[in-house]
Amino acid sequence: MDFHPPSPSDSLENLPREIRVGQLRDLIDALNIADEIASKGYLITSSELADLMDINASAVTSRGDNWVWRNWVVSRVRREGNQILWQLERVD
User: Fold this and answer.
1) Does residue 72 lie in a domain region?
2) Is residue 3 one of the residues assigned to a domain?
3) The whole model's pTM is what?
4) What is the domain extent for residue 70?
5) For 22-86, what is the HEC assignment?
6) What does the pLDDT look like over 52-90, one tens digit per residue?
7) Residue 74, Cβ density class (10 Å: 0-12 exposed, 13-18 middle, ≥19 buried)
8) CB 75 within 8 Å of CB 89
9) How many domains does the chain fold into?
10) Which DSSP category does 14 fall into?
């Protein structure tokens, strides 16, 4: 018998609707936060950006100085002490 592990989309489809909708709400919250950060010109740390993107902080810093995440260009602005500060700019 062949074993094929479920793909991530299979496992998401098997979740109850309430959980999937909750995940969408969480995503919308994160995107709204990113939009506010961009529109206000706030700078955020690597760990804050990682939390917003729901990834590991080392994955943020390994992407380089400028890259795109969803509807934003993410730019490394400067270093303050041991913190790297990032800026988000909305692209449409």
Assistant:
1) yes
2) no
3) 0.79
4) 8-90
5) HHHHHHHHHHHHHHHHHHHCCEEEHHHHHHHHCCCHHHHHCCCCEEEECCEEEEEEEEECCEEEE
6) 999 998 999 999 999 999 999 999 999 999 999 999 999
7) buried
8) yes
9) 1
10) T
